[in-house]
Inverse folding.
């Protein structure tokens, strides 16, 4: 059996309520007697997926605190979420300065008034549909009538899966049942036979396969080739009022991403230390996923804008959102120029 995370670590399966309690008092700025004082704490949200390993590596290596100390950061606090929608609820509440998250939850949140922008990419593709081993899969219609666990509406996985089903004339609300779950619960549900399948980011589909409770049948890159998945989002307050710090965050993100690309085995070890998952399972995930770590926000930007269109069609957002609404690439451009990443 594959080792499971100890006590599921700190999954925040609820939204603003617990997140607000957990981060009470840790604001990027505080207002005291009408005067704005800078706080020396940076609050970062993330999810326990290999998609967001750049954050874990930067945290493990001490790069967040070390690199950003010259901008006045004395402490970096991290908050783990089970999926993107509750993470964006916390950011809407003002409880996060930065977030590693799928590209679709920020779209929904911006539509609801979130003051934040995508400043860098983190990863593309990298999710898999896994089905119970006794279920024969030949084509999308094989899913008719099944119960599939995936992330909540507005998430990358939910959006990609729904779009793919609709493209194959399958109504995701009528022809099968999509059950909203975080990754740990979905893996447990597969092992218990409570669901017929799951569509999750890696390493979780690989873990399901190694545990013998299912097998991977369709990668997200097959559903939507070269689709963006995770990105780095910074608050509008940080972008407007601490631009030097914003640049420092992006530079450290680039450093961590490049390090992971060059040191995959160590990246796997960092992830296992962080989450409690078995190293062999994560190594197997890296061999079987179709994902790739990236940091350039221009990679797949067109797909993110397509997400916005799809989410509008699905009724998740109420207005047309443009690149200007969702992205601030000037931070990356400045850092990339300084690092000579672009010609």
């Amino acid at each position: 059996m594959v080792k499971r995370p100890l006590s599921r670590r700190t999954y925040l399966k609820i939204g603003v309520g617990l997140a607000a309690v957990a981060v009470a008092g840790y604001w990027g700025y505080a207002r005291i007697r009408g005067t704005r004082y800078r706080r020396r704490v940076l609050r970062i949200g993330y999810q326990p997926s290999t998609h967001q390993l750049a954050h874990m590596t930067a945290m493990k290596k001490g790069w967040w605190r070390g690199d950003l100390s010259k901008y006045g950061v004395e402490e970096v606090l991290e908050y783990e979420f089970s999926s993107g929608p509750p993470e964006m609820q916390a950011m809407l509440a003002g409880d996060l300065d930065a977030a590693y998250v799928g590209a679709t939850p920020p779209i929904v949140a911006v539509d609801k008034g979130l003051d934040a922008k995508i400043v860098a990419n983190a990863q593309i593709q990298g999710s898999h549909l896994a089905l119970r081993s006794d279920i024969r899969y030949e084509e999308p219609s094989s899913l008719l009538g099944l119960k599939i666990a995936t992330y909540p509406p507005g998430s990358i996985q939910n959006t990609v899966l729904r779009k793919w089903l609709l493209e194959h004339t399958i109504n995701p609300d009528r022809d099968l049942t999509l059950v909203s779950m975080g990754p740990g619960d979905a893996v447990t549900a597969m092992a218990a036979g409570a669901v017929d399948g799951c569509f999750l980011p890696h390493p979780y589909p690989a873990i399901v396969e190694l545990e013998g409770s299912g097998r991977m049948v369709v990668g997200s890159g097959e559903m939507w080739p070269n689709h963006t998945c995770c990105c780095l989002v910074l608050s509008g307050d940080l972008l407007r009022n601490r631009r030097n710090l914003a640049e420092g965050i992006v530079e450290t993100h680039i450093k961590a991403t490049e390090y992971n690309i060059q040191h995959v085995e160590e990246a796997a070890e960092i992830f296992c230390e962080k989450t409690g998952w078995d190293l062999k399972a994560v190594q197997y995930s890296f061999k079987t996923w179709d994902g790739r770590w990236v940091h350039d926000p221009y990679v797949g930007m067109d797909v993110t804008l397509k997400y916005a269109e799809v989410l509008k069609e699905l009724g998740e957002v109420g207005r047309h959102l443009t690149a200007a609404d969702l992205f601030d690439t000037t931070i990356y451009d400045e850092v990339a120029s300084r690092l000579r990443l672009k010609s």
